[in-house]
Amino acid sequence: MSNVRHGMIVREQSGFYWVEVPSEANKVYRCRLRGKLMETAQTADIAAIGDQVELLVSENEDLDHIGTITHVHERQHVLSRSVRTSGLRGGGSPERQQIIIANVSQALFVFAISQPTPDYMMLDRLLVTGERAKIPNLTIVVNKVDLVGNNEAQARFAPYIQMGYPVLFTSTVEDEGIATLKTILKDSISVFTGPSGVGKSSLLNRIQPDLGRAVKAVSQSSQEGVHTTRDSVLVRLEEGGYIADTPGIRQLSIWDMEPEELDGYFLDIAEQVPNCHFNRSCKHYKEPGCAVREAVLAGQIDKRRYKHYLIMRKELEEQLVATYD
Ligand SMILES: Nc1nc2c(ncn2[C@@H]2O[C@H](COP(=O)(O)OP(=O)(O)OP(=O)(O)O)[C@@H](O)[C@H]2O)c(=O)[nH]1
Ligand SMILES: [Mg+2]
Ligand SMILES: [Zn+2]
């Protein structure tokens, strides 16, 4: 019998990959990457959770792993971010693509309404990343609504509701929104991502109580998360589908984007671009006849969103300049 198998990476930690093999009743093998895969300088992670892979299972019991990943299949819909690198790891480039999850069909961006206060800049970066990656479904989850109440929570996320993003309000302590969340997750491959301490692991424990994902209180002094989750895991749901729990994000940089693309990924801004006088080249800074700026001044586009657009656009332009250093 051939010992080549086909499976999906369901967990990743410290250079090990756990691969689930459907043809063997979802048996999981702990694997390393074949040396050859790592030889060439890479601008992206070689393997990540959600990847479809070929693996070779070893008979040698003495190894610290029992499988070797020999091939990683081409990916669709990758949720990723850019990380700075030095030396060869980035294939000579100062940035590398770190893959949060491969082959994902739905991303849930999780924030807390309080403790920690929502990081709207990170939310806007995640939305841009998700739009750029063409992930079919993007949902915003606002957790810990027990701390401020539903009305207040809805008011704070109004710009996102208005843009048409599904915004789900949840509380793991009051069991709010959990049933809806289960319905949303059913039969798709989804990921929870967002800052530390917002309750990603707590939500997962609520959805599937036998999991026992580690959960820790936010820091008393800073009200921020303490980075409890260290591994990335894809959990198979009893109702069908998979959901990934990932470590809280500290910083998010956009991967591989031209400055001119950015306005297309801000849905509220994109809507106005055709009305700009110089619509093809308008940066929406101070150009005459800029419909975006007019919409901001008229209160149709949220000021904070516009500011975030300006900040990100500037960053992308600086990155472009830096490529000629
Ligand atoms: N009040 C309130 N607290 C919550 C809720 N959900 C989670 N928490 C608390 O928030 C803290 C952080 O929860 P975690 O589930 O560890 O957060 P996380 O997003 O997984 O954090 P990292 O793993 O560090 O990225 C814990 O003390 C939870 O008990 C909620 O709905 N309401
Ligand atoms: Mg966690
Ligand atoms: Zn404009």
Structure description:
The chain is 25% helix and 24% strand. It is an alpha/beta fold and 325 residues long. The strands form two sheets. Strands 1-2-3-5-4 form a five-stranded mixed beta barrel. Helix 2 packs across helix 10 (303-322). It is globular. The site of zinc ion has 7 residues, from helix 9.
Q: Summarize this, please?
A:
This protein has 325 residues and is an alpha/beta fold. The protein has helices spanning 35-39, 120-132, 150-156, 158-163, 178-185, 200-207, 262-265, 267-270, 291-297, 303-322, and strands at 4-13, 16-21, 27-33, 52-57, 67-72, 79-84, 95-101, 106-112, 137-143, 167-169, 189-193, 232-236, 242-245.
Descriptive tags:
25% helix; five-stranded mixed barrel; alpha/beta; two-stranded antiparallel ribbon; binds zinc ion; globular; binds magnesium ion; binds guanosine-5'-triphosphate; Rossmann fold; Ribonucleotide Reductase Protein R1, domain 1; OB fold (Dihydrolipoamide Acetyltransferase, E2P); 10 helices; 325 residues
Q: What layout of secondary structure does this protein have?
A:
Layout: E1 4-13, E2 16-21, E3 27-33, H1 35-39, E4 52-57, E5 67-72, E6 79-84, E7 95-101, E8 106-112, H2 120-132, E9 137-143, H3 150-156, H4 158-163, E10 167-169, H5 178-185, E11 189-193, H6 200-207, E12 232-236, E13 242-245, H7 262-265, H8 267-270, H9 291-297, H10 303-322
Helix pairs in contact: 2-10
Zinc ion binds at residues 276, 282, 284, 287, 290-292.
